Structure formats: structure tokens, C-alpha cells
């Protein structure tokens, strides 16, 4: 078993999770310049709903998945209609809306506390978790599914952005919202799509990582923070840069833990991100956004 | 009379007098503790208000400076045997130095990037305080002795009065800066950096000064908090503190003169009042925060200002009140 | 005021009067107030809820039996939310506003350490529960009594066991939360005292889904056993990764593995691990306690130490209250005198039998020893069987170095 490839694979697994959250964050940011502090809560609700529908109510997998998706989408609409739209209508700047999403995150956690209680719960797995050997690696289906979901959502995002006319409209809004509006692009639709699509990505990520991370109502914050760091490191402006940032953090973490000091891996990662921002203020792949300003 | 009220001098005098009389009306040390913590958070929030509310630079490192101040104060005493009177200014200087060093490169970043970079800094600091057990005492933290000098030792009430006086001085400086030359330069930086630059404002210098000043406010608050809690632990620098800080900003009113004090009163007392709701507490907290944000964009101090204006409705204010702020973005 | 409004008011008044009347008959004497500050939400909620319930059982049993010397016990409850500052504020509230006789609570180190100075300041006894950080009781605080074991005692127990079974080299893996970091610190110290060297050491972030880098390093080391200091869900991940990467070394996991969540998530990967516990399920009184616990809260539970610690702390408080000198002070009406009498009562009696530890062991407190659990005969190792479902006594003959 080759150590380097195991570390790389582990880094890619963790990085896929951070990347999925970073991708979701970046999609919303691209549409309306708002950082969604509640992004990790979508993951949490995805995980917890999976417990509710699959374990508590014992529903079949497809039904449970549809219902989970329904819960997450309803939550996205709640965020849009109860927080984003009222604040936007008043002309509040993006940072204020960010505080609004934080209020939404706290509210979501408060609701989840009432439904699921404070304890860590075990999450039913939808794929087999038995170890299996693939080349130099030992892994399981659940883990592979996380990486698979990452690749799939990345591909889907690429397809929507670059192969559909709707995607063209999204990109146009990302480049210059005002001109896009003048061109007859309805930015409200794009924003709604961004909320719903990123909620789907995060919610499904929650269903997949639940069996590995366990379900607890406060896991959202840690994931939001990792997603932020991913997006900032790669560059907030592009979903692909944000996803790459997630992979970079995951791999760096694994390498530091494997070859260096695992205890200080996390502070070291934050230090590295800080250093990179000193040199490249818009993230590693952020030229696009730097140019736009 | 009215101009005095608007300039806030009268209000500061009233606040201080009320604060000084307050202990006579309080029945218990628990209540004294709570009002002491209000001043601690008010100090922390004043710095944040200058930085974000007036200058438009969001920092999520305020709680880190809060913690570094308290740790510095505790460790200089516990590890080096310094007297509290030497440890206090030294701790504040340390924080100012750290803020200047990280501020210079960081302040090139804007909005979300600045927020996240400062957040990375705080997470790194918290990570270190938790991990480096030999140096920081780990999760149990470090005890902070009561301030003593000879036979005299500072009582709870003495600590409270000291905090009131420090906070009042902080508030005077805070308000003085807002209405002075620097304050206008800060608002210019907030509203349009390029514009401010072309008018001769040294944008980098203004940002850095405010960043360091805000860190100093946080450090003084942190030291006060350490004295009130009699100890410092990693939770001083953790997420709940920044959540409280943002809540104070929203509830009190960003960019206003008295928002930090009003917000601090609400944020410190609300969890105590909500305790009886048990499991519902978190939900109610989140909902209230959202309601404030959406329906009271200028926070409670905006509401009070409106009442004040109604009360003295003789003519429109001579100068636009400072409350035209970031939250509003001009849509008043 | 509308008619309905008046009606409501009248009904309300009537209800109030009736409550007062009933209270008057039931409470022929003033109730004794005790304060519970436990973490019933937040990161340490599992342990906080369990110890709170244990304490509640002790109090309810006393009240059902007519109270202590005719005084009912009134329990004032606060949820500290695993937030040190909030817990400290509640402690001040207990002391000043609620006029409580004592404070019982404190599971994780943070909140417990924050309550301590407040208790000292207001001169109110503080019965600390499972907070394990050693230095909390290193400098005896006049008002503090700790009921749970110290991390050092867990570490002594592991070190003794490993030593006795012939292990010389071990590896540590822990989460980077305070619990994991603290446990690792003391483990290093006591393992060294027993001549066992730590040959590999890994920390991990609880939000990481894949722990193979850390586990791989453990596997590559020449450690003969692995010690794990996790929270429940991440502990399960460690066990699964150990299993998946076929590390094949004996595993000892800290107390958190007693909680159902860990074993449920880890499933078969948790079978055979050793866990230190201070609850001896062989004792009849312990079995009776857990039966009563399951009946009272209507859910199946595993014999962990948390409810037992809460219950024991409550029982000690009740026992000491019943002492004539303490009761006289309580009835004297001066709350400060009563608190002092309670503290002195605990010290005067010194030793207490509880449900923790082996049958022969007991808590002992003294003026310079505020940590009640003894080092010997306190820990019982237990193991997991049947795919994570059951906690059973271990077969130690199999727990030996591989070569």
C-alpha cells in the first residue's frame, strides 16, 4: 500500500466535501454577491432529514431521497423569501445580507434542535460501507460516492453554465449584473436557481457524508467554515475555482497530517490560506474577479 | 439642549450617571456581573462599529484580539509575575502590534475576502490556544487574580465602576472620532475608496489606524472580561463571540453613536431572559435577529433617534445623522 | 377590559390561589433550593442530559419520600449550552438571585472551569460532575467538590492495564477538541510513568470525513496498541478506518465509546475495543439504578458513568443536608450559614458510598482533597460485543501484544 496515494485519495475525499460546499457558496455568490453563512446548514439538514426519513420513518430509499430533497429545497426558498428578498428590496448591501443568512443559520439550528435533539445520531448508509481494495487503496462505496458526487456536480455545473442559454445568462450576470439586466436577463430567476441548485448540491452532500460524519445539528458551522476557506482560497467568483480550493485544502490537510504534524494541521492550513491571500488577494485562481473590479 | 442631545454629550453624561447609580438599585452580585459584562461587550462593539459601521471594513478577528488581550494580561501575570498595572498596558500594546502586523497586508483585501482572511486568522489563534496546552493552559485556561495593591483589592463593585469609566472614555473617543475629521475620512473610505483617495484621503493609513484602534478596543474589553470571569479560556476567541458581536451591531444599529451600548445591553441580557424557554431559545434568538435585521435596519438606536426627532420636531436635523449607514446603504 | 379578559383574569387568580393553597399544605416547611447547571444542548449535550437526569432521579426520589426532614427539594435548572460564559452567569444567578444551597453541574472542562471561580467568589458549594481536566482540582478551591474521575485517573487506569498486559509501545489518536487534547496530554504523562512509550501520535479535525492519513501513520508505527480519545461520531470513524486499513492492533477507547452513538455508527468495527468505565454492572444496586433510569425516561440506555455521577452528587448533597448541624443551619434561614454548613458537612463526613466504582471503593473528600474519586478500584474495563450492540466484561487474556 503506497502511502502517498492513500494520502492523496484521503485528501481528495475530504476535499470533495469542502469543494461541494465551496461550489455551492460560489454559485450563490456569483448570482448575487452574497456569502451564504447558512450553506453548511443545508448539509446538516440533508443529513438529518436522511435520518428522519430513512431511519425514523423507515421509508424506501427513493421516497426518502425525494423527501429529503424537498426539505432542502423548501429551506432554500425560505432563505430566499424570508431573508434575501426583504433585505435586497430594502437595498441592503451584501455584507448585511450575510448577517441575515447567519440569522437564518441560527434559526435553522434552533428548529433542528427541536426536531432531532442535541445528541449525535447515527445516519443510515445508502451504499455498502464494507472495505474493498482498489489498486493500492482500501476504500468503500460510500466514500467513492462522495468523490463521484463531486465530479458529477462539477460536470453538471459546467454543463449548465457553458452548454445552456440559461447558463449564458448566469455567466453574464456574474460578469456584470447591470448590463445583464439591460440585456433583458431576469436576475431574480438566476438568483432563485442559484439558491435551489446550491441547496441541492449541499443537501445531497449531507446525505452522502452523514454515514461517515454522523448526524449532529451543529455540524453545519464547521462545514460552512471549511467551504468558505475553500471558496476564498480558490477564488469566490468561479464555482470551479472554489471547488479546486476545496480539493487543495483537503489534499494539503492530508499531506500535513501524513508527513508532518497532524495535531497542528488545521492551524497550519489557516496560516497557509492567510499567506496566500497576502500574495493573491482574490484567491489562487481569482484573476477573473480581480479583473472585474 | 437639542444640539447637545444630538452631539451626544448629554447622552453620554446621562448614560454614565445612570451606570454609576445602577449598583445601588441592583439587588445582587449576579446582576452586577451582568451589567459589568454589558460594558465589556460595549467596548468590543465600539471598536467593531468604528471598523465596520463607519469605515466599512468587516473584520472577523475582533474576538481573536479580545482573546489575545485577555491571554496577554493573564499570562504576563501568571508566567512572568508582572503586576496587573504593568500587564494591562503591555497586553494592549501586544494586541496593537499584532493588529498592525497582520493589518497591513490584510487590509488590501475587500469585503468578503477581508472577512474570510480575518476569520482564518482567528481560527488559527483559537486552534493554537486549544492545542498548545503547555503555553496557554489548554481548555481550562488561566486564572486571573483580582487586582490588588498592598492591602487593597478591587471589589466587584470597584471593577464595575472602573469598567464604566473605561467604557465611558471609550465612548467619548468613539463619538469624537465619528464626528471629527477622521470620521469623515473613514466614511469616505467606506462609501468610495477611489473617490476618497482622489480627495486626498490616505486610504491605507486610515484603514490601518482604525483596524489597530478597533483591536485595542477589543483588547481592553477582553481584559475586562477576564477580570469579570476571573479567568481566560479559548472560548474567548471562539465563534459565539463573533456571533454576539454581529448581533450587537445589528440590534444596536451599525454606524450609530450609541448602537454598541444599546446592542450590548440586549445581547447580554437576552440569553438570561430567554433561558426559561429552554429548547426554544436558539430558535427565538435566530428569529429575533432576523426580524431586527429586516424590520429595523438601523437597530434600536435608529428607533430611538426617530423618537428623539419626533420629540423635538421643530426643524429637520442640520446635519445628516451618522446613522445613514452601511446597513441601509442609503435607502432610508 | 373585555369580559373575556376579566374572566381569564379571574380564572387565573383562582388557579393561583389554589396552587398557593396546595403548595401551602404540601410544603409545611420551606423548600430547599438546589441549582443544576448542565449542558443540555451544545457539543456536550449527551453527557449533560444524562447527568442531569441522574441528579433529577435522586431529587425526585427524596421528594417522593417526603423530602429531607420535611423540606421538599426544589431543583432550579439551567441549560449551560456548553458555553462557559453562559454557565458562569447562571452560576452567579444561582448564588445570588435564586438563593440556592449549592450548584451541581459541569461536564466538559470549559463550563466547569468557568463556574469554579464564581462559586469561590460567592461562597457557594459547587459539586462538579464529569469534567476531567486535571488541574481543575490541583489548587483546592474551598467550595469545590468533584465527583467524576479525572482524566489522569482514566490515564492511570489505561497505563496500569497496558503495563499489566505487557504492552511497551502505544500510539495515540485524538480529536483536536479540548477533550481529545487534554486526554492525550495526561495519557503521555502516565504512560511514561509506567515505562510505556508513545511511538506515534495523531490528531484530527472532527469535520474530516477521511482519517486514513492519521491511521496510516499509526499502522506504520511499531505500536502494539492504539489509544483513541474521540467524541462519539468521530470515534466511530477512527474505529472504522482502523478496521478498513487492517491495522490489527488492540484498541482502547476513552469513555465516549460508552455512548450508544459511537457503537451504533461503528457497528462491528467497535467489537473488542476496551473502554474504561466507572460503573460496575456486576453490582446489584447499579443494575437497579439503570432499570429505574430506563423506566423513568422511557428509553433504553447503556450503563455509562454520566447518569451515575449526577445521581451520586445528588445523593451526597441530600445526605449531607440531612445532617443535624446542616439542617439546623438551613432552618436558621441564613443561606450563607447553610452553605458553609453544607460544605463543612461534606468535609466532616469525608467518605461516601456511591454507585461509581467497585463495591469496595468510595468517594473521599478532605480539605486539601476536593477530588472524590479514588485512584484504585474505581475503573472497570468493559468491551463491546455483537456488532456494537452490547457492553460486556472483557476477556483480558486476549488483550496482549501481538508478538
TrEMBL record, chain A:
A GO CC term assigned to this protein in UniProt: plasma membrane
Membrane-topology descriptor: Multi-pass membrane protein
Example GO molecular function: transmembrane transporter activity
Keyword Iron in annotation: no
UniProt keyword Transmembrane present: yes
Annotated InterPro entries: ABC_transp_permease (IPR001851), BCAA_transport_permease (IPR052157)
Gene Ontology biological process terms, A to Z: amino acid transport
Entry superkingdom: Bacteria
Location within or outside the cell: Cell membrane
Transmembrane stretches, start-end: 6-30, 42-59, 65-85, 97-117, 137-161, 193-213, 228-251, 263-283
Keywords (A to Z) from UniProt: Amino-acid transport, Cell membrane, Membrane, Transmembrane, Transmembrane helix, Transport
Main location: membrane
Entries under CDD domains matching the protein: TM_PBP1_LivH_like
Protein family per UniProt: Belongs to the binding-protein-dependent transport system permease family. LivHM subfamily.
UniProt name for this protein: Branched-chain amino acid transport system permease protein
Automatic annotation (TrEMBL), chain B:
Main location per the UniProt record: membrane
Any one GO cellular component localisation term in the record: plasma membrane
Top-rank lineage group of the source organism: Bacteria
Signal peptide positions (record): none
GO molecular function: branched-chain amino acid transmembrane transporter activity
Membrane topology classification: Multi-pass membrane protein
Keywords of this entry: Cell membrane, Membrane, Transmembrane, Transmembrane helix
TM stretches of this protein: 37-55, 64-82, 88-107, 114-133, 159-178, 210-229, 241-270, 282-300
Cellular location(s): Cell membrane
Family matches, as InterPro entries: ABC_transp_permease, LivM-like
One Pfam family in the UniProt entry: BPD_transp_2
UniProt-listed PANTHER family: HIGH-AFFINITY BRANCHED-CHAIN AMINO ACID TRANSPORT PROTEIN BRAE, HIGH-AFFINITY BRANCHED-CHAIN AMINO ACID TRANSPORT SYSTEM PERMEASE
Protein name as catalogued: Amino acid/amide ABC transporter membrane protein 2 (HAAT family)
Originating organism: Paracoccus versutus (Thiobacillus versutus)
TrEMBL record, chain C:
Key words of the record: Amino-acid transport, Signal, Transport
Any single GO BP term: amino acid transport
Span of the signal peptide: 1-28
CDD domains named among the record's database cross-references: PBP1_ABC_transporter_LIVBP-like (cd06268)
Pfam families the UniProt entry points to: Peripla_BP_6 (PF13458)
Boundaries of every Leucine-binding protein domain copy: 32-382
Keyword Signal: yes
Keyword Signal: yes
Sequence similarity: Belongs to the leucine-binding protein family.
Protein name, as recorded: ABC-type branched-subunit amino acid transport system substrate-binding protein
Organism name: Paracoccus versutus (Thiobacillus versutus)
